[in-house]
Structure formats: C-alpha cells, structure tokens
C-alpha cells in the first residue's frame, strides 16, 4: 500500500499567543525542533522526542505537531498497531492507530487537541484508512486537571469526535478492564466492505469464536 503524506498547516490563536498546527512533519523538521519539557505523559521528554522521530521514519508513520515558534508543545501520532496487540493480528494494511496525543498544560483548554485532529483529517489520504484509538484511563492526566475519569473521558470523546472518530464496542480484555476505557475509530470513505468486516472481527473476537 502506498503511504501518501500531504502536508497541511493551520494557525490558531490562543490566550497564550498563536501556535501553528502542522503535519505530517518530516523527520528532519522533527529533529530540528525543541521538544517542550512538559510533554511527559508517556515517557521523559527527550525519550518521547526520539520516539516521535523514529515513528516519522516509518512508511505509514504520521506526526502532526502543535508548534510555538521553534518548540513542539503538542502532537498526535499515527502508525500501525503494536505487533503484540489484537489490532495487528489481521495484518491490515489499511488500519492505523492514533497512538498518542498530548498537549502541554499551558495550552490546554484552547482546542489544540481538536485542531491537531482536524489538521490530521485535512489530508485526503486518511480516506484510505480505518483509524483507531484505544483510550485507557491510566494514561490520562487526572491529577493535573483535577477531573474524575468520567469528566476526562467526556473531554477525550469530544476531542476525538472533532477528528471524526466515534465510539465502537469491543471485547478487548484491556479495554473492558475499566468502563471508562474505550475504542474509537474513523472509517475512511474509500474503505472496502471486506476491511470493515475484518475490523469488526478484530474488535469482537469472542463473538466469532463459536
């Protein structure tokens, strides 16, 4: 499958100043930018910056960033699912995962996350993919925001909805381990029916075991 990555950009105004949302960004651009020290949700900032650079080198890897001058203050990643997860078992070339989304506290509440997703979907190539995201409450910054799991879940759903992702039922044990966890997906306009059926089998594997 040919992985097309058409660059898009959008400037948004916030109370803390304007920032640029752009991508998919190249490996060289990612390497040349500073990575904000408050981007700590998944691993230490230097390690996460390195991880994003590695994702950008993958044929299917797509990184959309929020940039304040020369500093990355938010990002969203897209790549094939982890080989150890059920979502990779179908070896579907047209299924990619929104692996991580993060925005520094300074710019939260300014619709940066929503705009990261909107810019992601401006690329016509997304119509060739089923895009999934698995939301786990243990990745959420409940302490920093002061929100409970259900309030945070509502914010996450609204943000994903901005990118056209919707809730889908699944019997995945990790997602089912807590009622706030969820699977969300966006099915591209050019996805074939057999790929949709394969996706249904992946998300409801136990139903197809009998």
Automatic annotation (TrEMBL):
Keywords: Acyltransferase, Transferase. Gene3D superfamilies: 3.40.630.30. Residues 23-189 form the N-acetyltransferase domain. Its EC number is 2.3.1.-. Pfam families: Acetyltransf_1. Coiled coil: none annotated. This is GNAT family N-acetyltransferase.
């Amino acid at each position: 499958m040919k992985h097309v990555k058409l660059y898009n950009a959008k400037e948004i105004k916030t109370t803390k100043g304007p920032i640029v949302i752009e991508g998919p960004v190249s490996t060289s651009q990612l390497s040349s930018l500073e990575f904000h020290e408050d981007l700590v949700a998944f691993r230490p900032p230097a390690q996460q910056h390195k991880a994003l650079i590695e994702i950008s080198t993958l044929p299917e890897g797509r990184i959309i960033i929020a940039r304040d001058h020369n500093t990355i203050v938010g990002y969203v990643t897209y790549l094939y699912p982890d080989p150890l997860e059920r979502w990779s078992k179908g070896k579907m070339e047209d299924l990619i995962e929104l692996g991580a989304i993060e925005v520094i506290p300074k710019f939260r509440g300014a619709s940066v996350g929503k705009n990261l997703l909107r810019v992601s979907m401006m690329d016509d190539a997304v119509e060739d993919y089923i895009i999934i995201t698995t939301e786990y409450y243990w990745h959420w910054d409940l302490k920093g925001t002061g929100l409970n799991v259900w309030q945070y879940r509502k914010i996450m759903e609204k943000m994903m909805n901005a990118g056209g992702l919707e809730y889908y039922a699944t019997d995945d044990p990790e997602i089912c381990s807590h009622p706030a966890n969820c699977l969300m997906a966006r099915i591209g306009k050019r996805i074939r029916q057999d790929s949709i059926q394969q996706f249904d089998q992946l998300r409801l594997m136990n139903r197809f075991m009998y």
